Amino acid sequence: MLLRTDAITAVLVGTGGPMPSNRAQSCSEVMPPEWSEARSMAFQYSREGQATPVYAADGVVVSAFAAQHPPIEPNVGYRVEVAGKTVVLSGDTVFTDALVAQSRGADLLISDVMAMDAVRQIQAANEAVGNEAAARIMHDIRDYHISAEALGALAEQAGGKRLALTHLAPPIDQRLLVRSFFRRPIAARYSGELVVGPDGTRVVIPL
Fold first, then answer.
1. For the chain, give me the number of helices (H) and strands (E)?
2. pTM (2 decimals)?
3. CA gap 44, 96 in Å, rounded
4. What span, in angstroms and rounded, lies between the C-alpha atoms of 49 and 82?
């Protein structure tokens, strides 16, 4: 996510589609070389769902809140606030009251999403050919990702202005399948703007 004086620009990755052809240039735009000295930062946060500020500088406030991705712990989402605008990153999670609360009125919610029926079909196909390891993975991952239907309901309940999808599972880039597995079930429940695109898709929020 790029923060500039005139806009917030979120760049989607993990959507299942191909990156732009000039990948090196695209990567340098997402993570400019002058940021190469950035370092990770340890922080504490509430496991009860409240947001905990973990960064504040130059008018930007970043808060962390608990996400649910068992058995991975700790696991967090982030709420970024700047100049009266709010962007929420869900992290890998299921539907939680914390995500609803932190997404309330957000200008943009960026969330992972899973097409449960498609994953069940992949599980069944692997079971049919005796690939038990892959079948088990397809079974287990449904416990820690949010379904398209639940995400649409969550975004509507939170009243967010825009919803952008990332980390699509399964990773599908055919337009008709994306529409069937993701767009339609979400749009049936969410009345805001829905953004689904290939890696490198940009969502711009003017400040």
1. 7, 10
2. 0.87
3. 20
4. 21
Q: What is the pLDDT of residues 114-171, one digit of tens each?
A: 999 999 999 999 999 999 999 999 999 999 999 999 999 999 999 999 999 998 999 8
Q: How buried is 143 (Cβ within 10 angstroms: 0-12 exposed, 13-18 middle, 19+ buried)?
A: exposed
Cα–Cα distance, 1 to 81 (Å, whole number): 12
Strands 76-82 and 60-66 turn out to be: antiparallel
Q: Of the candidates 41, 51, 47, 43, which has an alpha carbon nearest to the alpha carbon of residue 70?
A: 47
Q: Is 162 helix (H, G, I), strand (E, B) or coil?
A: strand
φ, ψ of residue 166 in degrees (nearest 5): -140, 165
Calpha distance 139→133 (Å, rounded): 10
Burial class (CB in 10 A: 0-12, 13-18, 19+), 183: middle
Per-residue tokens: 133: 């390891």
Query: Are the C-beta atoms of 198 and 168 separated by less than 8 Å?
Result: no
Separation of alpha carbons 118 and 127, rounded Å: 14
- Residue 60, Cβ neighbours under 10 Å: how many? 13
Tokens encoding 167 = 């980390």
What stretches in the chain show pLDDT beneath 70? 1-5, 13-32, 34-36
- 10 closest CA partner among 197, 187, 183: 197
List of E strands, 69-192: 76-82, 85-89, 108-114, 162-169
